[in-house]
Amino acid sequence: MSSFFIGTSPAFDFAVFTTCLLIHPGDSACQFTVDNAYKISVTSFNKTCDAGQCLATAYPAGESRNLIE
């Protein structure tokens, strides 16, 4: 992984990045909303490894923003 979210736990970051890798890997970002307040986009890529497919990199894509203003 090449970056983390600010103000979240590492467990949350790993869960988000792994979920996005499994559901929507590649250039087109995985997009979702957390607590109906924060729009998040994540780009993730996999690679072949001894275990099968492994996470190569994952990072927030573009601007994650607060929907409540």
UniProtKB/TrEMBL annotation:
Coiled coil: none annotated. The keyword Cell division does not apply. Signal peptide: none annotated. It comes from the Eukaryota. The keyword Hydrolase applies. PROSITE patterns: ENDOU. Residues 1-64 form the EndoU domain. GO terms for molecular function: hydrolase activity; RNA endonuclease activity. Keywords: Hydrolase. This is EndoU domain-containing protein.
